[in-house]
Design brief:
The protein has 331 residues and is mostly helical. The chain has a two-stranded antiparallel ribbon with strand order 1-2. The radius of gyration is 23 Å and the shape is globular.
Length: 331
């Protein structure tokens, strides 16, 4: 969940959509909806540069995309754990997610399998030898999944069951991804798509090892990583976006269950950049505080965005929801 995916497209053509930006606020508002529809079309075609160019054309304009990259951020410095606590942040609850919901579902499935095997033995009169062969076949399939698909089949099945039978789990995933989407947009990174279930991700990506997540138009980030030089601005954005999912869960439930992969990804990036432990702590603490304060300030926008994502709205429609919810005084 919340996997940050990166894609670099080449030879992208910019659209000639014929969209005219008008001067009055109402006309710009109408034009914004037209532009966002065009953004959806360009993203669907894989034209990320074209979509980003359309968004930047309306960035910061009244009635346009006022909120894109407009988040108010805290000064960057080394914050202590006590300072985070004064802001109502307990890092242990936020940065150590344990997915108890899926863990519980997996344990219940194992118990059900054992009970089902015993029941079948009694009902159908299976001999010990037949039961042994069935158990051996089940073990073979489990081993095949673990080796060939890295546990993708079982993960897909458990996630699907979780979404089907646990409303709490489904809601948590939606809120988690809404956190990623909102923070990215407010920091000036254009989301390009999202999935809320492993099954949706499998249908889109064709891979069993892709979880639910939000993808971004992160061309500049990929170019900087490939060049071996990541700017402070880019790193700050990436760190906040990576932590946004666990922050959303923490603010809503008091702890996070999902997002361990996001935290590990951020940790791997900082290590690859040669960060010391002290520098890593400084980056993570600032990112946590910054993301928490932004999300608290825009709680209504996150809630509305989560509703839109739950309904499967397009990226453009989700952006329009954010713009309609956040007032001028909040940016």
């Amino acid at each position: 969940m919340g996997t940050l995916m990166h894609c670099l497209s080449s030879k992208l053509r910019f659209p000639t959509s014929g969209i005219i930006l008008c001067s009055s606020s109402s006309e710009i508002s109408v034009s914004r909806q037209q532009v966002l529809k065009q953004v959806d079309k360009e993203l669907a075609k894989g034209h990320e540069r074209a979509a980003l160019s359309l968004v930047k054309d309306l960035q910061g304009k009244p009635g346009g995309l006022r909120c894109f990259g407009a988040a108010r951020q805290v000064p960057q410095r080394l914050y202590t754990l006590d300072e985070l606590k004064l802001n109502g942040i307990v890092t242990q609850s936020l940065l150590s997610p344990v997915d108890t919901t899926l863990g519980s579902i997996e344990r219940n499935l194992q118990i059900a399998a054992v009970v089902g095997g015993v029941s079948a033995w009694n009902v159908f009169g299976f001999s010990p030898q037949q039961l042994f062969y069935v158990s051996l076949a089940a073990l073979f399939l489990w081993t095949l999944d673990a080796i060939s698909f890295n546990g993708g089949v079982s993960s897909l099945a458990i996630d699907t069951i979780g979404h089907t039978f646990s409303q709490k789990y489904r809601n948590r995933v939606i809120q988690h991804e809404a956190g990623h989407f909102l923070i990215a947009y407010l920091l000036g990174i254009l989301p390009k798509g999202y999935t809320l279930t492993s099954l949706d991700a499998f249908k889109k990506e064709g891979s069993l090892n892709v979880q639910a997540g939000t993808a971004f138009v992160d061309i500049e980030f990929v170019e900087e990583v490939n060049a071996g030089k990541v700017s402070a601005t880019t790193l700050n954005r990436f760190a906040c976006i990576a932590l946004a999912g666990v922050v959303a869960e923490y603010l809503l439930y008091g702890y996070a269950e999902g997002g361990l992969a996001d935290i590990n990804q951020l940790d791997s990036l900082l290590k690859s950049l040669g960060f010391t432990q002290k520098k890593t702590d400084s980056q993570v603490r600032w990112s946590v505080l910054n993301t928490v304060l932004i999300m608290r300030r825009h709680e209504a926008a996150r809630a509305k965005l989560a509703e839109a994502m739950a309904e499967g709205k397009s990226v453009g429609s989700c952006i329009d929801t954010i713009e309609n919810t956040i007032g001028d005084a909040d940016i």
